[in-house]
Amino acid sequence: MTVRPMKRRIEFLPAELTEAEQRARHEARVGLALPALIKGGHGHIAPAVVLDISATGMRVLVDERSSPGLPVPPGARLRCEFYFGPVEIRDVEVLVTRVDEIGAGQLELGCAFERLPATMRAELRREVARRASARATR
Hints:
Layout: H1 19-24, E1 30-39, E2 45-53, E3 57-63, E4 77-84, E5 87-103, E6 106-113, H2 118-136
Antiparallel strand pairs: 1-2, 1-4, 2-3, 3-6, 4-5, 5-6
């Protein structure tokens, strides 16, 4: 029996992005601090702060001590409610895409909007663009 050494070769291939990931890379995002409510599947409600937002998602700050439903894992679905200028986001489903512990019980959740009506997404896009341009002119 003859043993031949195997050639070791690692090939890196670019990952195919999902449609949501492709959109997210092209959406304007604006930093802010808005109060919000995050609702879990078992009726748990937690106060949150929206740190930044785009038409496809948002990053929120929550304190895991504020609800027995926290922390949540990536892939969890939550409902959220907040007001972004003239845009009222009420009871919209979000998919948690990222969870970062930042210390002292604080968590940053990256969330993608799920099943957001097209009219609401357009309103969000307009308000983000308006605020981004207002900051650029300051």
